[in-house]
């Protein structure tokens, strides 16, 4: 190896700590021709502390000049063992953990958890709860896509739209705060209902948002969609075919950008999504630019769904009428013997789920988020598995980046829309 | 019929088709909460998954998830779980392989069928210690490669881990003395050596607080 090659010791000894051989030692591939120094490869380390990796993601990139030969992602820096923690908690106590997985769309995660447990327990929720949960999901989709678009703009060199978009995001966060009392860690849902109904006059705030938000989005559309730099950096970059996208188990905008019209809301409707009128944008090239167009259009469509949900919202109970799963109001628990017993049993023993298992996937902003529960009849799950959409989408990054330029790695990584809280769990 | 009911129906049909095609290699077919679940033998699982993917009448082209389940009952087998989906048929099917805990924890990799299995199998290996034969790069993914405490999602793995904080720091320093640690962490590691043997033993078992 000549002096021009930068070699890095990547701390691999050939076997891991459990004595299993590491089958792919991270060494530089030998040069193709010895006499040409220009053919020598370089290993470049990006992250885990790097603003363009959107969290603690580490990418080891093997470069030939500026061309990427290999990308090796290293994840796990934020691993918190949520799945293990879930095995030691009652079903309702898992809700706060879901806030912290995909922390850019906490309310949608809460909804997925509640739906999965309700599927396991066979609970049918009320109509008002269903509409409110649709609102929670679509608000989450908007804020998640706003963060994605803003930060991707910064990665590619456009700072101004970031400020416009974050101003809009702040408006949804204010609504979230008014509803749940928290901006990020919402813990909105409970099994069989919601933690709280929306406060009085809250709908007006959301209506106001739905009226004015598309205007801002159109400004961003004007700024980006035909921008020469934006098109040059995104069009044809990070392309993947429909067959490959399916083979790599991609989901969400990553899958739809390649032309596969699969949206859980349309194909396996939950929460009554079949009663809403909305379109699912589908791309054809599978590149960064199509992913951008899809996410932009999804925000318009989410606004449409929110408006319909506001019209559908009728007064009524938000929780199922079942004292075994829903806590009685505190006033009754303090005055009524029966209510107190139910309160005590739920808090101390939790709600037991029947023996069995259930998988439920919902269309999260990042892709299909699925929760898989296995129950042995106790109040705590035997296994809580998160099907993490951005973890599975990120696994395709090495393929997407192969043969691209180093600067494209940043653009492609941004277009995958990752959130490390969910990848590392 | 709702879309969910259609999917459940298509899944049940595929489960029956699998049973009539492979006979005794299918050990159990059942349903839970509307999901169709098929238990299959580990030896023929790869062949069956390939058939499910490629047969025109099945066409389960999308791998939703791979995971594993260990039950609290120590007698029960470990399960490797494949969630499959056919995008055009709108069908879902769950395939399970039972692994005897005392035996060799090894199944065939489906990396050649679905590239999406790459990281999913690595995660199952990382968290449960189940090896996937034929996987090109079976390394730990969420835990680091020098992690020596075992497999975190196994039931015999305590919630707080096998090693105390001091032990973890000491091992990390022994593996790489030049790693940068805070003074607080270094002082924990030094104090560890001076602790009485029984306290160190308790820390190693992951116990905290005062001695009862």
Q: Could you characterize what this model shows?
A:
The complex is a heterodimer of chains A (425) and B (212). By secondary structure, chain A is of the alpha+beta class. Helices cover 45% and strands 11% of the residues of chain A. The longest helix of chain A has 30 residues, at 127-156. The model of chain A is unreliable at 1-11 and 23-27 (pLDDT under 50). The model of chain B has no long low-confidence stretch (mean pLDDT 82). The longest helix of chain B is centred in the first third of the chain and has 20 residues, at 3-22. Helix content of chain B is 34%, strand content 21%. In chain B, the strands form two sheets. Chain B has a five-stranded mixed β-sheet with strand order 1-2-5-4-3. In chain B, strands 6-7 form a two-stranded parallel sheet. Chain B is an alpha/beta fold. In chain B, helix 3 (117-128) links the parallel strand 6 and strand 7. The N and C termini of chain B lie far apart (61 Å). Classes of the chains: A alpha+beta (425), B alpha/beta (212). Chains A and B meet through helix 1, helix 8, strand 6, strand 7 and strand 8 of A and helix 1, strand 3 and helix 3 of B.
């Amino acid at each position: 190896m000549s002096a021009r090659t930068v070699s890095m010791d990547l701390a691999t000894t050939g076997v891991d700590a459990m004595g299993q051989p590491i089958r792919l030692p991270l060494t530089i591939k030998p040069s193709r021709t010895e006499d040409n120094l220009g053919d020598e490869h370089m290993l470049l380390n990006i992250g885990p502390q790097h603003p363009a990796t959107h969290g603690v993601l580490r990418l080891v990139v093997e470069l030939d000049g500026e061309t990427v030969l290999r990308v090796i992602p290293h994840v796990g820096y934020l691993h918190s063992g949520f799945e293990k923690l879930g095995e030691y908690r009652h079903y309702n106590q898992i809700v706060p953990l879901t806030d912290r997985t995909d922390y850019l769309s906490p309310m949608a995660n809460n909804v997925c958890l509640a739906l999965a447990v309700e599927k396991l327990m066979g609970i049918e929720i009320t109509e008002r709860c269903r509409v409110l949960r649709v609102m929670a999901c679509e608000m989450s989709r908007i804020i998640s896509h706003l963060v994605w678009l803003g930060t991707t703009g910064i990665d590619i060199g456009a700072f101004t739209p970031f400020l416009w978009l974050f101003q809009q995001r702040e408006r949804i966060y204010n609504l979230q705060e008014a509803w749940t009392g928290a901006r990020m860690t919402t813990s909105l849902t409970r099994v069989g209902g919601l933690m709280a109904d929306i406060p009085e006059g809250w709908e007006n705030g959301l209506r106001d948002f739905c009226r004015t938000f598309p205007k801002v989005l159109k400004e961003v559309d004007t700024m980006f969609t035909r921008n020469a730099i934006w098109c040059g950096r995104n069009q044809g970059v990070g392309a993947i075919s429909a067959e490959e996208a399916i083979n790599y188990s991609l989901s969400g905008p990553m899958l739809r950008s390649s032309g596969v019209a699969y949206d859980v809301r349309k194909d396996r409707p939950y929460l009554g999504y079949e009663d809403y009128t909305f379109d699912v944008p589908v791309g054809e090239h599978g590149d960064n630019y199509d992913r951008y167009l899809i996410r932009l259009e999804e925000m318009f469509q989410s606004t449409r769904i929110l408006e319909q949900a506001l019209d559908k919202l009728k007064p009524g109970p938000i929780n199922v009428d079942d004292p075994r799963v829903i806590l009685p109001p505190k006033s009754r628990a303090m005055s009524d013997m029966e209510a107190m017993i139910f309160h005590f049993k739920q808090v101390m023993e939790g709600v037991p789920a029947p023996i069995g298992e259930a998988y439920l996937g919902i269309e999260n902003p990042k892709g299909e988020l699925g929760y898989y529960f296995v129950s042995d009849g106790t109040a705590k799950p035997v296994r809580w598995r998160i099907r993490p959409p951005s973890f599975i989408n990120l696994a395709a990054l090495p393929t997407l980046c192969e043969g691209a330029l180093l600067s494209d790695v940043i653009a492609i990584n941004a277009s995958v829309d990752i959130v490390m809280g969910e990848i590392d769990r | 019929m709702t879309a969910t009911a259609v999917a459940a129906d298509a899944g049940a049909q595929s489960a029956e088709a699998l049973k009539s095609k492979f006979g005794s290699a299918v050990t159990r077919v059942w349903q839970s909460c509307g999901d169709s679940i098929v238990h299959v033998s580990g030896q023929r699982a790869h062949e069956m998954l390939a058939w499910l993917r490629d047969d025109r009448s099945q066409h389960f082209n999308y791998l939703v998830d791979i995971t594993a389940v260990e039950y609290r009952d120590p007698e029960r087998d470990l399960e490797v779980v494949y969630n499959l989906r056919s995008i055009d048929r709108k069908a879902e099917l769950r395939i399970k392989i039972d692994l005897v805990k005392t035996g060799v924890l090894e199944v065939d990799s489906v990396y050649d069928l679905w590239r999406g299995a790459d990281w999913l199998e690595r995660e199952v290996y990382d968290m449960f210690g189940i090896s996937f034969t034929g996987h090109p790069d079976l390394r730990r993914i969420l835990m680091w490669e020098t992690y020596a405490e075992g497999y975190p999602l196994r039931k015999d793995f305590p919630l707080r881990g096998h090693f105390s904080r001091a032990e973890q720091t000491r091992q990390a320093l022994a593996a790489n003395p030049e790693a940068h640690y805070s003074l607080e962490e270094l002082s924990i590691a030094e104090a560890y050596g001076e602790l009485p043997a029984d306290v160190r033993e308790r820390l190693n078992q992951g116990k905290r607080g005062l001695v009862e």
